[in-house]
Amino acid sequence: MKSFFLDLNSRSKLSESSMMDRRTSIFPNLNPRFRRISSAQERKAAGPTHPSYEKGQFYPMIVLLCMAVLCMPFLVSAATTPVKLVNHSAALEPQRHKEDQTAHRVVDPFDGNNGQLALPTIRPDFDSIWNGRITDIAGPTGRPGILDIWPESTTDLADMVQQQTGRSVLSETKLTLSAGDTLAKILAKAEFTSQDVAHVSAALSGRLNLRRLQIGTKFIAGLDANSRAVALKISLPTGKQARSKENNVFFDHYVLRESFEGSVAAWHAIKAVRPIKKIAVHSGNEIDLSLYESARRVDIPLEAFDKFVRVMSFSVDFQRDIQRGDQFELVYENLVDRLTGDILSSGKLNYAGIILSGKRIGYYRFTHPDGQVGWYDRNGESAVRTLMRTPVNGARLSSRYGMRRHPVTGFNAMHRGIDFAVPTGTPILAAGSGSVEASGWNGSYGKYVRLRHNSTYKTAYAHMSRIAPGIRAGKKVSQGEVIGYVGSTGRSTGPHLHYEIMVNNRQVNPMTVQLPAGKGVPRDQMQAFFDQVKAIEKQMKDSLTPAYVGVTLQQAALER
User: Fold this and answer.
1) CA–CA separation, 191 and 230 (whole Å)
2) CATH class assigned to 148-274
3) Separation CA 265–CA 455 (nearest Å)
4) Closest CA to 350 of 280, 284, 276
5) How many CA atoms lie within 13 A of 233 on its CB side?
6) pLDDT at residue 363, as a whole number
7) CATH of region 277-384+521-556
């Protein structure tokens, strides 16, 4: 106690006597505690008066022990009581229902549901909200036809003007754009006023590039009884016609006058579809000097002839297999303008056939349901081979596979490819689909490209003048895609293509190697293919193509 006061004295800066005398006034709240501490010290000094004061700490333990003894009978009774198990779900259903009601019961006297959980109501029908009535539901309609969107062009300008505006055309002037002409000069010749020229130009500006009108564009200008301009028809040259993806839709442009107010709005421009018809042309010839010259003599379109060579290049070596007296034939389409009778487009090949020493080879065009086009023989076997034997058109075989005297070194060496002599710049085609394995300069090969087609076949092309843009290692290419151009780079004496076919990384003779064919017509499409074959052969049978060199096309077909 004395140490306690000394500590307080040190903190309060008071003497011990002052601290003891003034504890009531300084620490009034501690006065009762001081008295209890003093009484306890006095009792301790006097000594224990009863042993229970020392053993009082055991009283709680004694009470807990007594309570455990008293509860023992109840614990024994609960442990020995038998339990009845209920396995039937029906017996538990009332209890479950009671629990569900208790769990979902909402205590709200003002909810209007007597304490029950409110369920969501059914979404109302659209017609019940807007007081409407559903009469019919129409599905999507098909794509409209071309003639449902644009009108059909007419031979006479007056007919179109009458259909669209109800006006009459008294006179028509036909003009053709020549070198140095402009739209203004052409319309001035047709007696259009300068104001009419400005309005017509404004109407056409959104449809045609008037600064780049092609030479040969035809114009028909119409005037009424008062010599006022009322209409203009523009027909672009065949090669510049606006055509659809199928290349069978051509358009004319009309500018028609609706009123004589003298404003731009008085004129409006429309497009009209030129009516066309498809004509199947069956043509052929006997090979004399060369295949190309024989095709040119009978006016076979270049597009059709080029496709013919590509289809046949899988099966025919045009240098070794073709002999004088062999025959060839094609069936292709011409699109003819019904208004003028002009051929708007030609060259879509439907059949390619050739007769080599009495052996006929023929392939038919067939379009699959997914839009892909394939070439097959009468049995549905594909004309396409894994690789093309001749990856360049119009080539002459200048050096064969095998031992030869090298034209540059003068030594005898194995020539592990074949050479095609063609002019510099001739496109080189990928012999098959695959990926580019090497592209660039390759020593004596010059500019060089090697393609990997699968795990077995590779092809190589050397002495290029240049490699096609984008042809680099890793690039995917398709069969027939241009990969470069013929040249004379590397160890070469003139422009030619050196071509190699490698089987398991070993060069083989491209002219004699057996190449696997492509996939044939699927079984579920064979009937559609046979129908196409019959239609093409009927066109060939009904052909009016005259005889050539004393041999008719039916004789050349060798009794199909």
Assistant:
1) 11
2) alpha beta
3) 67
4) 280
5) 24
6) 92
7) 3.10.450.350
Local confidence band at 387 (pLDDT 50, 70, 90 cut-offs): confident
Cα gap 455→502, rounded to integer Å: 11
Determine contact, residues 271/256, Cβ cutoff 8 Å. Answer: no
> Residue 552 is encoded by which pair of tokens?
């008719």
Q: Any idea of the CA torsion for 548, 553, 557, 560, to the nearest 10 degrees?
A: -160
Range(s) of the chain covered by CATH 2.70.70.10: 396-508
Query: For 399-435, what is each residue's pLDDT tens digit?
Result: 778 777 767 666 677 777 888 888 899 999 998 888 9
496-506 core/surface letters (b: 16 or more CB in 10 A; e: else): bbbbbbbeeee
- Provide the token pair at 520: 């044939």
3-state SS, 505-525, equals: CEEECCCCCCCCECCCCCHHH
The pTM of the full predicted model, rounded to 2 decimals, is 0.54
Distance between CA atoms of residues 316 and 333, nearest Å? 24
| The domain defined by 396-508 carries CATH number 1.10.15.40 | no
Task: Please list the residue range(s) of the chain that carry CATH number 3.10.450.350.
Answer: 148-274, 277-384+521-556
Extract the tokens encoding 454.
């699968």
